[in-house]
Amino acid sequence: MFKENDINILLLISVLFKICLIIYGEWQDVTQVVKFTDVDYSVFTDAARFVTEGKSPYERATYRYTPLLALILTPNIYVHPAFGKLLFAACDLLTGWLIYKLLKLAGFSLPSPRSKVPVSQSQVSCQLSIDAVLLYTSLWLLNPLPAIIACRGNAEAILTALVLSTIYMLKCEQLHLAAVLYATAVHTKIYPITYALPLYLWLNSRRRSKCSGKVTEYLWNVLWPSRELLVFASIAMATLAVLVGVHYAVYGYEFLEHTYLYHATRRDIRHNFSVYFYMLYLSAESEWAFAIGLLAFVPQVVLLVAFSFEFYDDLELCCFLHTFTFVAFNKVCTSQYFLWYLCFVPLLLPRLATGKTRVLAAWLAWAAAQAVWLAVAYKLEFEGDNVFVFVWLAGILFFVVNILVLWSMIAAFDAVQNKSKLNHKLS
Hints:
The chain has 22 helices and no strands. It has helices at about 5-30, 40-50, 65-70, 75-80, 85-110, 120-125, 130-140, 145-150, 155-170, 175-190, 195-205, 215-225, 225-250, 255-265, 275-280, 290-295, 295-310, 315-330, 340, 345-350, 355-380, 390-425. The longest helix is centred in the C-terminal third of the chain and has 39 residues, at about 390-425.
């Protein structure tokens, strides 16, 4: 039905859609009370203006990002205020193209016996037609959620592009470039650091064929660093050191505080999707507030470590579970964070041989629970009603549904892997 070149048509439609969104956003900002442009975009632009004046971007209150972002957005001042939106839309487009390339890589060119790239049981059974590849790619390229977030001026599309670029380069066995991209992603926003353990385990598993004996194999494959891992880690740490070192030399401690340390100790008491929101709001002035904030990391850490050791041989699935867990259990959770894990969904759905109905139902419940929270939050934000408790209850509902989505995805992939193992034994 479709040809491989039809990806160009899909990309063109996506480009036109994003251009229309940006133009519409400019109109809404001028004519409507509720603005289309994200408030963070004004923060980015103000920070970029300070950079053009030879000042620190951190002179702009609430700028909590790398100075590199403000530097990249200086054309907002020199060229046009919408430059950043076009850049973020381009990164969103790049994310869609990377999804297409990764689906092709998994569906058409499974590794040969000589390849060192580890393949999970669920990946071995994945053979995709070009129709299926384009269909699943369209789930991102034609999805209004990431498009709107990017065109409103939110920078998360840069992160999704960097993360998927890292995975794509790893799958293409371009370790050096993958390491540079990964370090840049961690520098840009710290959450990709959670992928460090899965990457450690996945890179070590590349030498699986050299092992013998169960205990020896586990220690050799999983724990002892391989040559590939040492190369990747060395380049990534060197790149990160250069990025951090240069910015620290220019901006000093305020760079570390606003880019990294702030996010580790952050306690956002404004309403958000987090299940911790109301507790942190009520305990904001308590002497235990800092300790409570730190304890919130415990469930995250436990689950991230468990998922790493259980699913490291399936890198896309493991990164999805990591990101989903990190966002769902985080002290602060906003809509743009959802893009961090949604970019993995088109890569995983085609490999669901069983449990598709259950997974679909879970994702529909996820969308419905999000709509419930937004409806209650609207009452608080725009009508000024005292509905803090209802916002918290809606957040609890959303958290429960997130757990349901997590369970449904894990159960579906466990079923796929068990079926593949059984077929392998029978053959």
